Amino acid sequence: MSSHAASVKQTYRFDQSFEWNYVNGPQFSGAYPSVPVTPMKSFFGLPVRSRFGVPSSILSNSRWVETYARLGFDILTFKTVRSVARACGSAPNWMFLDRNGLEDRLYTGDQTMVVGDAPASTQGATMAGSFGMPSVLPQMWEPDLERACRSIGEGQVLIGSVVGSAGPDVSDDAFVADFADLTRRVCAAGVPIVEANLSCPNVGKAEGQLYLDIERSRTIARAVKEASGGRPVLLKVGLMEEPERLLAFMRAVNGYADGLVLINAPSRRIVAPDGSAAFPPGRERAGVTGTAIKPIALGAVRAAQKIIERERMALQIVGVGGLTFAGDALEFIEAGACAAQSATGAMFNPMLAIEVKTATPAV
Ligand SMILES: Cc1cc2nc3c(=O)[nH]c(=O)nc-3n(C[C@H](O)[C@H](O)[C@H](O)COP(=O)(O)O)c2cc1C
After folding, report:
1. Span 348-357, average pLDDT
2. Which pLDDT belongs to residue 7?
3. 18-359: which CATH architecture?
C-alpha cells in the first residue's frame, strides 16, 4: 500500500454527479508536493519527463488537467470531446465491484459482475463505470482546451481526444467528417497529438464499438490523419481477443495512425447483489476499470507489440488499464508500450505519478 494512500483523498466524488465533478472538481486541496525531476524521454518525438499520465477519462476540463499536470502526470489526455453537447447518464456513474470472485468472473468470458461496498483500501479497487461520453458544446471546450494547453509544464504533453456523434440522420460520410472537423478544432486549440476514440463500453454500437468495424476504423484513421496537420494520431480501442482481428485491425490502420491506446474498459453486464440492474435503465452494461483489468491490458499490449515487431509496423502502443501501483508503469513499458496511463488508479491516488517517478525514474 502506498505511503500516501491513507492521507490522500480520491479526486472524483462518487456521491455527486459527473456534472458536479466537472464544475467543482477535482477534490484536491493543500500544497502541491514536489515532483522528482526525472530524465527527459521522448513520446512521439515530443520531450517528456516521464512516459506516464492519465488517459481520456477524468480530465474533463482545464482545472483537472492543471491539477494532474502539477502532480507530475506528464502524458495527459483531455477527456473526449464532441461537436454536440451530450449529457452524462445520471448518477450513479461509477461503482465498486464486489471483490468476491471478481477475477474469475472478469477473466471468464462475458460474465455478469456484481457491485459491492468500498474495499478497506481503495487503492487496488475495481470499478464499473457508466458515463456515456458526455461533452459540453465546442464553444465551451475550445477555449478551455486552449487554457489546458497553456497550463501544462515543460516535459508534459496534452492529447486531444475526439469522437464523432452518430445518429439516425447522420450519414457515414458526415460521421467521418465529424471526426475530421473535431481533429482540426483540437489542433487549433493547441494539442500536439490527436486521439480518435473508437471505443466506449456504454454508448450505442455506432460510436462505442467502431474498432470492431475494420473498414470504418481505417476510414476514420485516414480522415483524422489528413486533418491533423501532420501531428501524431492515436486510436483508442477496446480489447480484441481474437489474434486475427487484432492483426487485421492493425494492418488496416497502420500508415494512418501512429499509435494505438490499449485498452478501453471491458464492457460487462453489471448487477446489484440482489440481481437487479445496478445502473439506471438502458445502462445494463458498463465498463470495468481499475486494478483487475491490468492483466487484460498487459496481454493486449504484448499481443500488439508482437505484431508490430513481426510485421515491422510503424505503430506504437500506449498502455492503459488497471495501472494502480508504482511499479505498474514500468511493467507496461517493459511489455513494449511507449507510454502508460492510469485513470482509476490516478483518481484514487493523485500521488501516483510522484510514486512512479520515485520508484522508476526511467519511466
Ligand atoms: C470516469 C471515466 C471516464 C472515461 N471517459 C473516457 C472517454 O471519454 N474516452 C475514452 O477514450 N475513454 C474513457 N474512459 C476509459 C479510460 O480511458 C480507460 O480506458 C479505462 O478507465 C481503463 O483504465 P483504468 O483501469 O486506469 O481506469 C473513461 C474512464 C473513466 C473511469
Report:
1. 98
2. 58
3. Alpha-Beta Barrel (3.20)
